[in-house]
Amino acid sequence: MLMSVDAELMRVLADPLRLRIVTLLARETLCTTHLVEETGARQTNLSNHLRVLREAGVVETEPCGRFTYYRLKPDVLDALADQFAGLAATARAHADSKRSC
Length: 101
Hints:
Elements lengths: L6 H8 L1 H12 L2 E2 H8 L3 H13 L3 E6 L2 E6 L1 H20 L8
Antiparallel strand pairs: 1-3, 2-3
């Protein structure tokens, strides 16, 4: 069976700032203020990237007073890792397979 990787999720995670955000959120739940401090990005730019991550299902929000905290959803990354593991298993299983010209 041919397995494909979620292209939309890969596009979302391919952006360097979004990948940095995901890396930071893997260690702890952070608010926008913390993420601005850690990344050096402008708050409006960061908010746009967080919106993309939220819409892709990579992060979830937790309102806390006037702040919004962001938490990584590890199940989404687990599913992506499983897709890559499936591709690797397929490649191993068909390592000797070559189509003739």
